[in-house]
Design brief:
The chain is an alpha+beta fold and 204 residues long. It is built from five helices and eleven strands. The strands form three sheets. Strands 5-6-11-7-8-9-10 form a seven-stranded antiparallel beta sheet, with no helix packed on it. Strand 9 and strand 10 form a beta hairpin.
């Protein structure tokens, strides 16, 4: 347990990762992480190994004697690969994390979460296409620049939209990838909620 705590704390310092951020990626509370790292509560063996994976130390694992060990296989494939866990959120409440989480290799710049794409506004006949049912990862800490896919509102109380931010003639628009949908004029009343940085299809 002591070796695990030392390893985790050292890795968090290297990544400049706070307990709050680690908890967010694990899908647990900050209090739970704090209890584990202060040795006030002992996490399960599976949870200890899950934290190592999230910190990019998946080539190591805790064994039944709570020692850190390297497994016989998979070392080369996993070495240096960081994995992060982000929650799934719903369109009708983008502030509430659901119990379900997904892993990916992207280290977010700010709060990040997955959304399931709805409708066909971002389904294109050619080129880049993000059809309904795909999961997209929204990073609220990314800068929104023309050309990026964003989650945005045209007004403070409006429904969030998943669109591509573009600029034409000095004016910005939200453009759907589906050409049968109209592009929408961007104004100072608009708010970018985050930038879409990953898309993932789930078949089962």
């Amino acid at each position: 347990m002591d070796k695990w705590i030392t390893l985790v704390k050292s890795r968090m310092r290297e990544l400049k990762l706070t307990q709050e951020k680690l908890a967010e990626r694990m899908g647990v509370t900050q209090g739970a992480v704090g209890h584990w790292l202060r040795k006030e509560r002992e996490p399960t063996l599976d949870r200890m190994n899950e934290i190592l994976v999230v910190l990019g130390l998946g080539h190591l694992q805790m064994n039944a004697s709570t020692d850190v060990a390297e497994p016989m296989a998979q070392y080369a494939a996993q070495e240096g690969q960081a994995v992060y866990r982000y929650p799934l959120r719903a369109w009708n409440d983008l502030t509430l994390d659901q119990a379900h989480t997904e892993l990916c290799d992207y280290a977010a710049h700010g709060t990040a979460y997955w959304l399931s794409v709805e409708g066909d506004a971002m389904t294109a006949p050619l080129g880049l296409s993000v059809p309904a049912g795909m999961l997209v990862l929204v990073d609220c800490g990314q800068d929104a620049e023309p050309g990026k896919l964003v989650l945005a509102r045209l007004q403070a109380d409006a429904q969030p939209l998943f669109r591509q931010l573009i600029e034409e003639g000095g004016q910005r628009y939200l453009r759907p990838l589906n050409p049968t949908y109209p592009k929408l004029l961007w104004s100072d009343e608009g708010e970018v909620l985050g930038v879409v940085v990953r898309a993932m299809a789930k078949f089962a």
